[in-house]
Design goal:
The protein is α+β, with helices and mostly antiparallel strands. It has 4 domains: 62 residues, Beta-grasp domain (Ubiquitin-like (UB roll)); 172 residues, Threonyl-tRNA Synthetase, Chain A, domain 2; 240 residues, Bira Bifunctional Protein, Domain 2 (BirA Bifunctional Protein, domain 2, 2-Layer Sandwich); 91 residues, Rossmann fold. It contains 20 helices and 34 strands. The strands form 9 sheets. The protein has an 8-stranded mixed beta sheet. A hairpin with a 2-residue loop joins strand 20 and strand 21. The chain is globular and about 90 Å long. The chain binds one RNA strand through strand 14, strand 15, helix 8, strand 27 and strand 30.
Length: 639
RNA sequence: GCUCACGUAGCUCAGUAGGUAGAGCACUUCCUUGGUAAGGAAGAGGUCACCAGUUCGAUCCUGGUCGUGAGCUCCA
């Protein structure tokens, strides 16, 4: 065979014999240190196993263990190994479906009559370890689609046959390790011994191909890393996330509750949570006032006819609560605030001179969610949107978007979120509005993002049917992403409600409408905040800033005086005058994550001072009550 | 909604070859007046989620309902 020219990215090419395997090529091209980290290579579009022969010259892009892709390869292989273990353990009456790598691990779906139990974990894990110890090579074979269909049909693997029927290519690949054979594009690790750090995480049901009309399969989730330390880090992070779970902290800190009395997905804000929410709302309102918004209030129900006009009955009924009859008229609990704001817009004729009109509302909406979807504060049936609608001229669109992004990032920053993923969603298949408008609006969103210098990803076709949108997913302190902010251009509602304004030409035109929410849902955002701060809120939004702790009953009167003085100075303060030891009181205040403990004993009483213990356990120098109040005021200022 | 698991005092959890229950914390009272993460004692508190069935008898077994969790689906 002839020679071919191969090189790795950025290096000089070498002449090597055609038909050489990837492993041999890598050996020839890379240092031994580099070589150890390589698990596959990318040649053009394709990822290649180490064992694949190279017949054409070109540039090989190394896929290393420390890359995302390299990790995905390991995890994908891990799913095959787990499937092998399961098939070997639970016999021939089990069918395998699919087993890809995911964001933080992998899964494999099985069709098996008996449910897996946590006890099976042990068995599967130890079987996996045996397979790993056996260092079985992953071998790749290619065959025609027809051959593959025949092969899997004979094995009774009907899911694989179905997959094959949907594949268009005439040649497919299968991978074999030991006696386990799976339809797979690859690539895979060289042999099973590379799987050194793995763990089964959980069992769950999953529909075949995500379709609830099709059979429910059993999905085993696991995760894998090249390095045991990485696995430990991941498991520790899961542990940490569990500690921060807003449902757990919400209960412990008495922030919110969900009661059987009231119903699932409906949030009861307890005094401390309600206070934190008020502080968030006040901040939000102030910030909006400063940015030229006007505040609105609108009701929770409206005539069903309105929802017919708005189009919600056509495209949103499944997410709405059932209607109610009032004096023979049908009313509807609101799933969105927009039509109400339109009701206010339509109170009189509007002039272009008024634009942009910026109206905001903390509007509580109700959406029907299937019981299985509900989750703490994160997914509920009644929630408050920090909503706003901006009515503007086409030429104002870009600047308005820019201003919204600006305000958005500013507010997120105040809550400690400075990292985000930004997505621009473009026109979906089903849409309303003219192509020209879509293009203009998408362009305006894009320009605003670029002017702001925000890196973003385009989500083609993911826009809402009525207009393109920007979504901002914030990253919390554990690096988890939460979708909160959304900015959407709407061509639909102005048309449906026949909105107009008189332009310079004294003719009627249709305004552009922007919907946007920054925190998204106050409930969910609060949930994210609880987890982000692990319940230890910053001073400005913590419900209790300080707690007065007296040492003995001898200081009861002084403690009361200090407490009153702080309260009058605007400090959110509590007074713990119970007949308990200081240690005990400190422990409780600490667990309640109160930023400052104000300790008053005889020493303080005699000198008219307080000793302040911080949440981090450090003591401040004794100071006057006035000085402490001033310190709190200073530190509570939002920058 | 679907699959699996779970549902015992305010909270965290024990428990019972099926004979109507227990701990720690919290709560109340008393003793103690103690300087930086739990002082001691006593008391009160539960139709063991709800409804049916099996049984002489069910918190425990069976079925259903409701709720919770993990996913699927969906999304603020």
């Amino acid at each position: 065979m002839a020679d071919i020219q191969l090189s790795t990215a950025g290096e000089e090419s070498k002449t090597l014999p055609a038909g050489i395997t990837v492993a041999e090529a890598v050996k020839a091209l890379c240092s031994s240190k580099e070589r150890k980290k390589v698990v596959a290579v990318r040649a053009g579009e394709r990822l290649l196993d180490m064992s694949e022969p190279l017949t054409e010259g070109g540039v090989l892009e190394l896929v290393t263990k420390d890359s995302r892709e390299g990790l995905n390869i390991l995890r994908h292989s891990a799913s095959h190994i787990m499937a092998q273990a399961v098939v070997e353990l639970y016999g021939p009456d089990i069918k395998v479906a699919i087993g890809p790598a995911t964001e933080d691990g992998f899964y494999y779906d099985f069709d098996r009559k008996e449910p897996f139990t946590p006890d099976d974990f042990e068995a599967v894990e130890s079987r996996v370890r045996e397979i790993v110890a056996a260092a079985l090579p992953f071998s790749r074979e290619t065959l025609s689609r027809a051959e593959a269909i025949k092969f899997f049909q004979e094995k009774g693997e009907s899911y694989k046959v179905e997959l094959l029927n949907d594949i268009e290519a005439e040649t497919v690949s299968i991978y074999r390790q030991g006696d386990f054979v799976d339809l797979c594009r690859g690539p895979h690790i060289v042999n099973t011994s590379l799987l050194q750090a793995f763990k089964l995480i959980r069992i769950a049901g999953a529909y075949w191909r995500g379709d609830e009309k099709r059979p429910m399969l059993q999905r085993l989730y696991g995760t894998a890393f090249y390095d045991a330390k990485e696995l430990k880090k991941y498991l520790d992070q899961l542990e940490e996330a569990k500690k921060r779970d807003h449902r757990k902290l919400g209960k412990e800190l008495e922030l919110f509750t969900i009661s059987d009395l009231v119903g699932p997905g409906l949030i009861l804000w307890q005094p401390k949570g309600a206070l934190a929410r008020r502080l968030i709302e006040d901040y939000w309102k102030d910030e909006h006032y400063r940015n030229g918004y006007e505040l609105l209030y609108t009701p929770h129900i409206a005539k069903r006819d309105m929802w017919a006009t708005s189009g919600h009955l056509d495209f949103y009924v499944n997410d709405m609560f059932s209607p109610m009859e009032v004096e023979d008229v049908s009313y509807q609990l609101k799933p969105m605030n927009c039509p109400f704001h339109i009701g206010i817009y339509k109170t009189r004729k509007r002039s272009y001179r008024e634009f942009p009109i910026r109206w905001c509302e903390l509007g509580t909406v109700y959406r029907f969610e299937r019981t299985g979807a509900l989750q703490g504060l994160m997914r509920v049936r009644g929630f408050t949107q920090d909503d706003a609608h901006i009515f503007c001229l086409p030429e104002q669109l870009e600047e308005e978007i820019f201003n919204i992004i600006d305000l958005n990032l500013h507010i997120l920053k105040t809550f400690g979120f400075t990292e985000y993923d930004v997505y621009l969603s473009t026109r979906p298949e089903k849409y309303v509005g003219s192509d020209e408008n879509w293009q203009k609006a998408t362009e305006a969103l894009k320009m605003a993002l670029e002017k702001k210098g925000l890196p973003y990803q385009v989500d083609p076709g993911e826009g809402v049917f009525y207009g393109p949108k920007i979504d901002i997913k914030i990253k919390d302190v554990l690096g988890r992403a939460w979708q909160c902010s959304t900015i959407q251009v709407d061509f639909n509602l102005p048309e449906r409600f026949q909105l107009g304004y008189t332009a310079e030409d004294s003719k009627e035109h249709q305004p552009i409408m922007i919907h946007r929410a920054l925190m998204g849902s106050l409930e969910r955002f609060f949930g994210v905040l609880i987890e982000h701060y692990a319940g230890a809120f910053p001073l400005w939004m913590t419900p209790v800033q300080a707690k007065v702790l007296n040492i003995t009953d001898a200081q009861l009167d002084y403690a009361e005086k200090v407490f009153q003085q702080l309260r009058m100075a605007g400090v959110r303060v509590e007074n713990d005058t119970r007949n308990e030891k200081l240690n005990y009181k400190i422990r409780e205040a600490q667990l309640a994550k109160i930023p400052y403990m104000v300790i008053v004993g005889d020493k303080e009483k005699d000198t008219d001072t307080v000793t302040v213990r911080q949440r981090d356990g450090k003591n401040l120098e004794p100071m006057s009550v006035a000085a402490f109040a001033e310190m709190i005021r200073e530190q509570s200022r939002i920058r």
